[in-house]
Amino acid sequence: MKRALTVILVVLLAVACGGRRGRGADGGQADSLATETPEAPSADAGAKNPRTAKADTISLTNYKNRLPQEPIFDIITNMGTIRVKLYKDTPKHRDNFARLAITHYYDGLLFHRVINGFMIQGGDPYTRDTSRVDEWGEGGPGYTIDAEILPEHTHIKGALAAARRVGSIANPMRESSGSQFYLVQDSTNCKHLNGEFTVFGETIGGLNVIDRIARVQTNRFDRPERPVVIQRIRPNEQMNKRALEEEQRALEEAANPTEPEAAKKEETNPEEEIVVEVQTELKDSSILNGRKLKHRGSKKSK
Fold first, then answer.
1. Residue 71 backbone dihedrals phi, psi, to 5 degrees
2. pLDDT at 218
3. How much is the pTM?
């Protein structure tokens, strides 16, 4: 009996120990896999992060009522500041550029394509990563913008325009890149771009900075040998405030129109009218008298 009980205990212990080894091995394997191959975050994980999205919303809300219809932004680079004004009649591009700038999207990106005598191009998020240098010029926020090509906005020096994929097959609607833009350095060499790309703003300060950037040394792929960094793009608070005040003043004047200046000029004092008439009569009379006297004088001479 004792021998039978001993055999049973040995079997139970063996099963128990075997079960623990199995769980231990499986558990160890699971821990190892979790450590060595963590789940890779998606490329747009930041955009889907509720905290990031909330911060962006707050930032945009703060600026919503502080920007005029044609806001002014400073593109601050390691080679100087370029000040641009965005056009109100290209609202999709204006609002997109403002949103990306205000939410710090452009901070730290490069001017990755520079051609002296032509233009400078930047705004590609891939330029944050030097290991993806072969892909520079292909990045963006994951969407495109409908074309807003207007004949009155041409490629003048300092024009701010949206980059895009070229070709009637690749991009028949001429939709713009979601973030990449370029600044015109030479209007003559960019004439052929008129009517083909959306121009949504212009440089109002820092044309010399565009020239300075355009003259940097580049490689055979038109990439600067030394990084030209967009440190940040921000609204110019002072100039936007002044422009917004002028817009509000114009709206108030339109809502409460005053008498036109022409109407004021037409309204004259009755006494002034009498004086004018008397002066006119006297003037006419003197002219007539002068003629009569002259006529009489001529008779006497005969």
1. -70, 155
2. 98
3. 0.68
